[in-house]
Amino acid sequence: QMCIRDRYQRRVRADGQIYLDVAYFSKGIRPAINPGLSVSRVGSAAQNKVMKKVAGSLKLELAQFREVEEFAKFGSSLDESTRNLLARGTRLVRLLVQPALKPIAIENQVLSICAGVFGFLDRIDVSDIAKYEQELISFVEVTGLFNDEPFFNLGKDIDEEMVKNFLECFTRMFISQNTNKQE
Questions:
Q1: Residue 7, pLDDT score
Q2: What is the pTM of this model?
């Protein structure tokens, strides 16, 4: 039985407080930051506009997931919408796990988060989320997708329809390639 002092490690920074969660760390979630307890004086003002827009729905979905995840531990029967919320939350958390010392360009972060919040990861097995993200980033880099006509101008806005159309095509391609390998 862990007390709250054992579970959370607080790190005070000049621009806010970051709470590191031992349970997240144990699950392999790095960085193991608890977004529900951590606060920032800067907030989303430091983010570019596109990331702020995409991250807003990500934060909301993760907050709902964390809340429902706690209740789901009690083993009561869950309705379909709650199961879907838990499944998406699990995928979003997995999406946020980043390999150490391998920074991801902001454009690729936004595109990956879009895949999660727009529901494209719902069709991907949790164990394949890292592979999906890696192949998505590789595909974008190889094709030079951001070189000609980007999906978004990081300082301004995102073309949601274009992003959704691209992610739909990529997700279908990913599923078909990975289904064929398993058969």
A1: 53
A2: 0.78
